[in-house]
TrEMBL record:
UniProt source species: Hymenobacter sublimis
Designated name of the protein: Helix-turn-helix transcriptional regulator
Matching InterPro entries: HTH_HxlR, WH-like_DNA-bd_sf, WH_DNA-bd_sf
PANTHER family per the UniProt record, alphabetical: TRANSCRIPTIONAL REGULATOR (PTHR33204:SF29), TRANSCRIPTIONAL REGULATOR, MARR FAMILY (PTHR33204)
Residue ranges constituting the HTH hxlR-type domain according to the UniProt record: 11-110
Amino acid sequence: MATRAKEFPQCAFRQTLDVLEGKWKFAIIDSLLQHEVLRFKELERDVAGITARMLVKELKLLEAHGIVRRQPYATVPPTVEYSLTDCGRSLHPVIEAIRTWGEQNKAVLRAA
């Protein structure tokens, strides 16, 4: 399989996995889907278990890929709000499918 990924570097499936890989990206996207706009601290509280440093890193990556929009405001103290772009909102059916699959397979997942 690894050879196949090298043969087709422009494969949409592989590119998507590269962008969305990791423990936190789906949780961040899900939180923003539910709340639409969140300040940094609100997002940090909503994504249970994530550190501020990891949240900053993941938000920068999601912003670089056009999934999250960062809106800074010139206030004291500085205020930054995060929301999903149209591209990010288009992940809604994917998030819902993952949630549904998890609900349907709770017993199997707990046993593993």
